Amino acid sequence: xxxxxxxxxxxxxxxxxxxxxxxxxxxxxxxxxxxxxxxxxxxxxxxxxxxxxxxxxxxxxxxxxxxxxxxxxxxxxxxxxxxxxxxxxxxxxxxxxxxxxxxxxxxxxxxxxxxxxxxxxxxxx
Length: 125
What we know:
The chain is mostly beta strands. The chain has helices at 107-111, 120-123; strands at 35-38, 49-56, 59-63, 69-72, 77-78, 82-83, 89-90, 93-95, 102-104. Strand 2 and strand 3 form a beta hairpin.
């Protein structure tokens, strides 16, 4: 078994969206370098992709490709739908037709004949 690269899990992979994990907050183990999609409070960065770096006073510090870093509530950071074998993260983000919040699709939902129109919270409500 190959040695994992720094910042990855023991399987050598970062986390993707699952039925129970949608945001960085949902992850039990948060890995440095985890790709995230930013919903957060800084309008200039909203909708951008970044990587989780570290926690600082209950905020997740996200680093962007231009070198900038900002702290976010982990609830504001969506996980990728898929990560390919080259480590490129893909985000399939949709607006909920009921509550209008953005949510990430799982890879299974992406490949389904019909994508869900509602976020997981509204589907289970």
